[in-house]
Design a protein that fits this description.
- This protein has 2 helices and no strands.
- Helix 1 packs across helix 2.
- It is flat, with a radius of gyration of 18 Å.
- It starts with 5 loop residues before the first helix and ends in a 9-residue tail after the last helix.
């Protein structure tokens, strides 16, 4: 990262921030509509759906590690 210029790093940070903001708004609206559709309370629907969305990066990391054969959890069993 040391070879990147400061304006480029700032631009990437701002772009990532905007993408996160937009995704958060979209996720919130989707959660609200699913709450209404399934008759869940706002708190319960938010808890379930946002918890699933929050763990997606970990699921992707573990899945890709297992598929690549680099996971070490099987060797400990």
């Amino acid at each position: 990262m040391a070879s990147l210029s400061t304006p480029l790093v700032v631009l990437v940070f701002v772009a990532g921030s905007v993408a996160t903001w937009v995704a958060g708004i979209s996720l919130s609206k989707t959660t609200d509509s699913l709450d209404r559709r399934f008759g869940l309370g706002e708190a319960l629907g938010g808890l379930i759906l946002l918890a699933i969305a929050g763990t997606l990066p970990e699921i992707a990391i573990v899945t890709s590690a297992v598929l690549a054969g680099t996971s070490t959890w099987r060797s400990e069993i």
